[in-house]
C-alpha cells in the first residue's frame, strides 16, 4: 500500500517524537525502504534521462531527510546508534579515507618491513629541519657518501630516515624512499639543538627510547648519525657474537676494554634480543640518575654497572681503523668504512669540514688502483671544527675529560 501525503506526515512526526535509538533505526529503514519501493515500482520509464532525474531526486530527498532528522534528534538530545551514524556519514568518510590510508602506510612497522634486510636488519638515522636545510644540508652530504662510495649505494635500500619534525619529513619524502615521522608532544626538534642545551638532551634521550622500541619490534638496527660519512660496507667488520657494538671517540686497541674505550652513540650496531632490550631500558632510565648528562656520557658511566653482567650483555667497541672520526681519524683509507664529524661543535662547522673530507675521499678514489695501497694519502686536518672545539672547551666550565662532543 502506498502512503498518502497526510499519512506520511503523521509517520514522520512520530519519528521525531520518539526517544529510542532502536526505534529510530527501525523507522529510518521504513522511510528509505518506502522510497526505494517507489523508485523501482512506480517509475517505469525506460529513458535514461528520466532515470537520472529520478536518481537525482532520490539522492536529494535522502540528504534532505537525513539533515532534517539529524537536526530534530539534536534538538531532542537523542543520539543515533554509532553504526547508523557511521553508515550514513558518507561525506566525512570519503574525505578522511586518504589521510587514514597515508597514516597506515607510514606506520613504523610498515616502513621497517619495507626497508629491512632478509635478517630483519635496518639502517636508521634521525633528521630535523636544521640538518635538512638545503643551504647547509648535512643530509645531502650523508646521502652523497652512500652513492659515490664502494659497496654502499645498495645499502640506501635499507636506510630509514626518522624525521623529528614535519619539514624534515617532507624533505625526506622528496629525496629518499623510506621515511618515518617521529613526533614528540610539546617539544620542537626542528631547529639546531646546540650541544648540551635542554633541547639537545631531550633529542638524544628521545632517540634512545625510540631505538628501544625498534628492538622490541624484533628488528636489528645499525644506527648512524647523519654526520657520519659512509665509504665502505661496514657489516663485514661487525662482531658476530655481540649484542651491542658501538663506535668510539677513542679506541684503546681492545674491543672488550670497558675501562679505556670511550664510546660514541652516533654509530652503533645492535641485535634484537632480550639482553639488548633490557640494556636499552636501563640506559634510558639512567637519565634520571644523571639528569645533566647526554646519552653517550651516561653510557660511559653505566658501562661499568653490574647489570650488564647480570643480563649477560655482549658489548664490543669498534676499531677506529674502520670506524673513525674527527676525534680519532682512520689513518688507512684502504680500510676505512665510516668517518664521523665528532669532536665538532656547530652545524656550519660540520658541513664545512665534511665537504673537505668528501673531497679527500674523491681524490683518493681518483688515484690508479695500484697507487692507492702504495701512497700515504690521508685526510686533511679539520679546519672549522678544530677551532670551534677549542673555543667551546675554553668557554665551557662543565666539560670534563670524560665527556665527549658529538
UniProtKB/TrEMBL annotation:
Q: List the InterPro entries.
A: At1g28695/At4g15970-like, Nucl-diP-sugar_transferase
Regions that span the bilayer? 12-32, 52-69
- Sorted UniProt keywords: Membrane, Transmembrane, Transmembrane helix
- List the Pfam families hit by this protein, alphabetically: Nucleotid_trans
Q: Which residues form the Nucleotide-diphospho-sugar transferase domain?
A: 155-354
The name of this protein is: Nucleotide-diphospho-sugar transferase domain-containing protein
- Upper lineage ranks? Eukaryota, Viridiplantae, Streptophyta, Embryophyta, Tracheophyta
